[in-house]
Design goal:
By secondary structure, the chain is mainly beta. Helix content is 14%, strand content 46%. The protein has a single domain, classed as Clam (outer membrane lipoprotein receptor (LolB), chain A). Strands 6-5-4-3-2-1-13-12-11-10-9-8-7 form a 13-stranded antiparallel sheet. The radius of gyration is 22 Å and the shape is globular.
């Protein structure tokens, strides 16, 4: 076989071979998570159960509102019950990228005081739950982490990407409260259903697991979520209901005035 014939044969084999797309990078997967359709706005009710190591339970009721502004978003959450924390509220303006710090304000009606949450406080825990102020946001700030795809696996019968995110600096590690995070992202819907967290010292800290994921108005939605702290034995259980997507929420919903006013709906 001469050289020309060999080259033609090789080219023919290469053209006939099936094309395999390269796996996405960890960052690309998290960008797809960030970009997935979650509606232009959302209203939902929430029930919260705080369960301590002894099994003692505290229950709360909340309502939250969220609206997207391009890649940015704003949200406000009000506590409705019990009476001793009613009208406590958290307002978040979540900006895409790191050029501008996110804004968060916590209103404490007993003190008639608004506390601004600084970037150095975002690793603090929110209202005795196992969620930090940072955890409450829709997705983590992608530019704060180095992302790496570490593999694929099956979880509850679903194919998952497993992506690790490590803070880019010691300062971020301190502010966020984590040395490492691991996201399990469903390949079919670009939605994470489990997150593992390690503390600043690299010790296993807590796990977030979403449950009963279904479509509401064509949007994939988690109906529950549990954050379990393995160090304290405490967990926070959330159930979500009465979802209303794309209602055309007013921009005034997400103002400091509304934060202080409290929820005046049904």
């Amino acid at each position: 076989m001469n050289k020309i014939t060999l080259m033609i044969l090789t080219a023919t084999i290469l053209l006939a071979a099936p094309a395999y797309s390269a796996e996405p990078t960890g960052l690309e997967i998290m960008q797809q998570v960030d970009a997935r359709d979650d509606g232009d706005d959302l209203i939902q009710k929430m029930k919260q159960r705080l369960v301590d190591r002894r099994g003692d339970v505290r229950e709360r009721e909340m309502i939250s509102f969220r609206k997207d502004y391009g890649k940015d978003s704003k949200s406000i959450t009000y506590f409705l019950a019990p009476s001793n924390i009613r009208d406590t509220a958290l307002l978040t303006w979540d900006y895409d990228g790191i050029a501008k710090d996110d804004d968060q304000w916590l209103y404490l009606p007993a003190l008639k005081k608004v506390r601004r949450i600084s970037s150095s406080d975002r690793g603090d825990y929110f209202m005795g739950t196992d969620f930090t102020f940072e955890d409450i946001k829709q997705t983590p700030e992608l530019e704060d982490y180095n992302w790496m795809l570490i593999g694929s696996e099956m979880l509850d019968g679903q194919a998952m990407w497993v992506v690790e995110g490590k803070p880019k600096s010691d300062e971020l590690k301190k502010n966020l409260g984590y040395s490492n995070t691991r996201y399990y992202v469903r390949k079919d819907i670009n939605m994470y259903v489990r997150v593992d967290f390690w503390d600043r010292k690299g010790q296993e800290l807590k796990h977030l697991v979403s449950g009963e994921i279904k479509q509401i108005n064509g949007i994939w939605t988690a109906m529950s979520g549990t954050m379990s702290n393995v160090q304290s034995g405490h967990r926070t259980e959330l159930t979500f209901s009465e979802h209303s997507y794309n209602t055309g929420l007013s921009d005034n919903t997400f103002s400091e005035r509304m934060l202080k006013r409290g929820y005046r709906g049904k």
